[in-house]
Amino acid sequence: MQESFRRSIRKMTDSSVRLSVRPNRSTMMATLSQSMMVTWSIVLHEHLDAMLNDPAVNVGTTELISFSETAWKLADSSFPQIVADANKLYDEFRTKWMQRFSTDEVMRLLLEGGDFLHHDEEKGWALTVKNNKQDINAFYSATIHLLVSDAEPLFVRMHGRVMQLQEKLCKYWHSESAVDAVSKLLPSLEASLRDKENALVVSLRSSLNALAKKRFAAAFNTKNPPHYYSSAASCARNVGRYWNPHYAYENGFLAFTDDFCDYARGLTLQIIEWYQSKWALFLRGFSRGQLNLFETTGPSRS
After folding, report:
1. What is the pTM assigned to this prediction?
2. CA dist 161 to 98, 137, 158, 174, 199, Å?
3. Which of 18, 138, 198, 262 could crosslink 8 through cysteines, CB 3.0-4.6 Å?
4. Contact residues for 249 (Cβ-Cβ < 8 A; gap 6+)
5. Contact call for residues 156 and 76 (beta carbons, < 8 A)
């Protein structure tokens, strides 16, 4: 996981990523089994039974089982290209939105996009957004929602690339290596987890808006009276100071955009790299010396 993604997670969620040094294998296996599609679980058990009931079929000349050279080479060459394309898309995305949230553009948006700025002849300029759901939602819809809704298609596009590649990998993998009960174990296991994988990716995509909205609302969670500024530009620079506590950016929207872009890119790359690791694991298959991993042994008797 890239450090920029870790930082963006901490900023967008107010919590850090904590990785368990010693994962509980029993818990992981239980979760895995609960995630499997029932139909494919039955198929997997049938292949296991066929393998155990006829040990003769487990003896052959090929040492590697469920290994597809064509699929392996395709995955090895394709995933890095998808990662490179994703990085290029998100670089362009960041540049576009950093320009759109320049101080001049933010000031224009506040003045023309709604009644977000109020000018008092004596006090100066102030933001009219109050700490209530209606005001915050309206302000979010006019500003950050546009950024998020523009990011979601990028996420979907790159996930679609991965899904297209996955279908090709499966085609070669099944045709080259799934020839008997033993060699069909890994393909059956992979297929049984597809629905859970897709559901997880969909939930991550839909979380982008909820996460952005929560962080957006945090900047206006205050009961302090409105702060007045000498000019509209000065007021625009100070909107969302919660996102820009150290004044590292010219305005708060630029800070929010930078953090969100890091998060959206990191999340997309994390999913691509997860599928890359998944297929590196499955396509290497297993050796005949590892067949005892699939056998069940009874309790020892004294």
Report:
1. 0.82
2. 26, 33, 5, 20, 17
3. 262
4. 255, 258
5. no
Q: Which amino acid is at 183?
A: S
The identity of residue 247, as a single letter, is Y
The angle formed by the CA atoms of residues 244, 212 and 199, to the nearest 5 degrees, is 145
Q: Which two tokens stand for residue 85?
A: 């394309």
β partners of residue 65: 286
Give the distance, in angstroms, between the CA of residue 80 and the centroid of all CA atoms in the same chain. Answer: 17
Nearest to 177 by CA among 164, 159, 158, 190: 190
Who contacts 135 (Cβ-Cβ below 8 Å, separation ≥6)? 128, 129, 220
Nearest to 157 by CA among 93, 212, 213, 73: 93
Q: Which residue has the tokens 């890091």?
A: 262
Question: Which residues are bridge partners to 118 per DSSP?
Answer: 126
Amino acid 135 reads D
Look up residue 47 and give its amino acid: H
Residue 86 · residue 275 · CB < 8 Å? no
The whole-angstrom separation of Cα 20 and Cα 9 is 17
For 70-112, the pLDDT digits (tens) are 999 999 999 999 999 999 999 999 999 999 999 999 999 999 8
User: Which residue type does 126 have?
Assistant: A
Strand partners, 229: 125
Within the chain, strands assigned E span: 64-65, 117-120, 124-127, 286-287
Average pLDDT over residues 175-189: 79
